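Consider the following input, taken from an annotated entry for Serine protease 39 (Operophtera brumata).
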Amino acid sequence: MPLFPGAFASAEESIGSIASIEDFPSLAQVEIRVGLTWVQQCAASVLTNRHVLTTASCYRGTEVPEYSSRIRAGTSDRGLGGIVASVQDTIVHPSYGLLGSEADLAVVRLDVYLTLGTLVQQVAILGQGIELPEGLIVKLAGWGTTVQGGESSNDNLYSLDLTVHNNENCMEQYIGNQIITENMVCVGLNYINGRDFDSKDLGAPLYYENTLIGMLAFGEQASDQLPLIVLATGTLSSVPVVVF
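Applying the prediction step yields:
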């Protein structure tokens, strides 16, 4: 069924803007250890005070062991401040990898409990079975590049308004390249077809009025013609993953 039938109003051209973690307190960073240095690898969302949600490809794509990964929450700065917690284990959706990026989900259990408050909060997730209408204006938050074709990510948290695109058109654009399923949503800038993809935004949350509606799964780097592909979290209610 359509989500909020009246939510088709047009918006001005979307541009990235510096944001505060207070505006997105459920947003977290996935960091991996490279030698003696920790670097931000992906984004995640706080599910509980001991679990975060991200994409399975954040871990499987780079074969990162748990002891070389940690979560940083409660900060607007990439790689600085906030609360840092080591990863105890990850639970990857059992269907991940069977059909492209379908079921690209992972629940990460931390070795300590996060202290919830103003800067660290649990995310609200869109209910199961709610479709996102074409033309809906949604918001992406993360530390990826804000420049089309940009090569470097941002040290500051940014947010960006994007528009939901027609899935059938999106399938045609990605044909022979990636598999687009009914559990995915295509989004892009308002004034061009697509949006440049930065791997640092893998797992980055897509919101509608502070409710998580999806996580960034894939896209094309240095491209403004192919939409970004978001895994719709409206399918999460049926995900057979045990959170404990």
